[in-house]
Specification:
Blueprint: H1 2-9, H2 12-40, H3 45-48, H4 58-92, H5 98-109, H6 145-150, H7 153-185
Helix pairs in contact: 2-4
């Protein structure tokens, strides 16, 4: 019950902040993966500086790899939990009915349902890729992509820049045609 009351208090801003935190954790996750791979590789001569330095021992490489992979899996688990919480919040807000989308994928990807596996395609079997009546908006539920885009001013800025570019090109063309016409209309002496 305590977790449910916490979610009721969270605002849209709080959810966005949490998603930004998840995004940062994904970057850290990739860094941990890179450190794990780096621990398994031999350093190049450029990284060592000069040839007199000795290579790291196997024990040091093993320790670095273990630390990096432990941190990797801790972050992965944390990200998984945080994303599940965000999905649950979307389901609670009736924005994204994820169960319907999962059921659609399970049913449509199975060419022979268990009920009709014996004697060919039965009367109730749906062909793969068929549209189910309980899936709304392609599995997105009440999520309105147009509404989301209208809240993002990047689209508006890009469109405005494109319109200014077209207007500038149009005016340059008009200017060139005026100059061309004026040169042609000037009598030659």
């Amino acid at each position: 019950m305590a977790a449910h009351s916490e979610e009721a208090v969270l605002t849209h801003t709080d959810h966005i902040k949490q998603l930004n935190g998840i995004d940062q954790n994904v970057a850290k996750l990739l860094q941990c993966a890179g450190l794990a791979v780096k621990a398994l590789t031999k350093p190049s001569s450029l990284e060592r500086g000069n040839e007199s330095q000795e290579l790291p021992s196997t024990q040091i490489q093993k320790k670095e790899f273990t630390e990096a992979t432990t941190q990797y899996f801790d972050l992965l688990s944390s990200i998984d939990i945080e994303l599940r919480q965000q999905i649950h919040a979307l389901e609670e807000a009736d924005i994204l009915p994820i169960e319907a989308a999962v059921r659609e994928n399970q049913v449509d990807s199975d060419p022979l349902p268990a009920s009709s596996a014996g004697a060919g395609a039965g009367a109730g079997a749906k062909p793969p890729g068929s549209i189910r009546s309980d899936v709304i908006n392609g599995g997105l539920g009440n999520l309105d992509v147009g509404w989301l885009n209208s809240r993002n001013d990047n689209v508006e800025k890009e469109m405005e820049a494109e319109l200014w570019k077209k207007a500038s090109a149009f005016l340059a063309e008009v200017e060139r045609s005026k100059e061309k016409d004026s040169k042609e209309s000037i009598p030659q002496q």
